[in-house]
Amino acid sequence: MKHIFKTIPFLAFCFALTLLSCAKKEKPADTATVADTVKTVREVWTKEQANAWYTQWGWLRGSDFIPSTAINQLEMWQAESFDTATINRELGWAESIGMNSMRVYLHHLAWEVDPAGFKDRMNTYLTIADKHHISTLFVFLDDCWNPEYQSGKQPEPKTGIHNSGWVRDPGPRIFADTTHTTFDSTQLATLEKYTKDVLTHFKDDKRIVLWDLYNEPGNSNNKNKSLPLLEKMFQWGREVNPSQPLSSGVWAGDLVDLNKYQLANSDVITYHNYDVPEEHKKLIDSLKAYGRPLICTEYMARTRGSLFSNVMPMLKAENIGAYNWGFVSGKTNTIYAWSAPMPKGGEPKLWFHDIFRKDGKPYKKDEVALIKSLTGKN
């Protein structure tokens, strides 16, 4: 996603993991540390539970998915722009190259406007995905990109700008003041109701792999200001206790407190890495120490040297779930790099993300051939 803090050197990440290792024997966070009221909150899965869960899925591989006709999460999920034809077509392309899972972002505002309809649309999406033998990893909150958002018609893409219309969830609205240290009680109550409603409705849905509670907490320069809300998300998730695991992926080595909490409280370990394979492998080796399944929920940025050709085979060999960012080039403009806009538009010499053009033709035939060979579709 949007990495305001550039990929952190491996030693910094190791420092964060070293701090966590001192806490590994501690009891997982419970209501005494993250709850305002006493409720039944399950503990983090044991390593044995996590690994037993992982064996049922085989090697997970797919993309972070949004249909090419949607600029952001709201345009994907609102009733007036929920595009089942495009979703069906594009997930068909995913099936054709052997992908078996997709990571998909939600947004609380689409639920707030129409809770029942939102869940119906989630079910419709899951039905379409399941028809294509594709499971789903849903994402709740997100600290990336634009801070403000509204329901209804979404903005048009800004020419040549990566993810120009993507929106945070909940963004600054969660805070009661400009210091961003106190929650707005109404917003917090809404998020709790939303999270618990969705989790309860789908808690035993076997089409869902995992709940990613909070994408890149601390991004947009929030840093530790995101930690209390991350704690709330894990508290609410454990109160519902879905059959699927709960996680939040580590992504920046200098966010020591966030990393420590995420790794200590996730049932399975998820992470992001857009580095060259040598650095990516170092991170894998460090995370293996925790004895839990690993799922890479974001990778592949061609201009940074993170490629299908050098990362995806490594993830398969390590039995690590592999979700690259971007599937079909569309309104998110993720063929353009994070910090290299092309104000006049046009096609960059090298796409940053994405696999297919809007007409279903591969951006690079050799990449699709490689993916198919790794997934057994050749």
Task: Please specify the SSE layout and strand pairing.
Elements: H1 10-23, H2 31-34, H3 47-55, E1 61-64, H4 73-77, H5 84-96, E2 101-105, H6 108-113, H7 115-131, E3 135-142, H8 185-201, E4 208-215, H9 227-240, E5 246-247, H10 256-265, E6 269-272, H11 277-287, E7 294-298, H12 308-317, E8 321-325, H13 365-375
Parallel strand pairs: 1-2, 1-8, 2-3, 3-4, 4-5, 6-7, 7-8
Helix pairs in contact: 1-10, 1-11, 5-7, 8-9, 9-10, 12-13
Organism: Chryseolinea soli
Protein name: 1,4-beta-xylanase
GO molecular function: hydrolase activity, hydrolyzing O-glycosyl compounds
Which structural class matches the secondary elements?
Answer: alpha/beta
Instruction: Give the uncertain stretches in residue-range form.
Output: 4-12, 18-37
Number of domains: 1
% residues in beta strands? 5-15%
What's the oligomerization state? single chain
What pattern of helices and strands is seen along the backbone? HHHEHHEHHEHEHEHEHEHEH
Please compute the radius of gyration using only Cα atoms.
Answer: 19 Å
Strand neighbour order, sheet with most strands: 5-4-3-2-1-8-7-6
Number of helices: 13
Text of the CATH class: Alpha Beta
Largest sheet: 8 strands, parallel
CATH architectural name: Alpha-Beta Barrel
Helix content: 25-40%
Distance between the termini: 30 Å
**Total beta strand runs:** 8
CATH topology: TIM Barrel
CATH homologous superfamily annotation: Glycosidases
Which term fits the overall shape? globular
> Could you tell me the mean pLDDT?
92
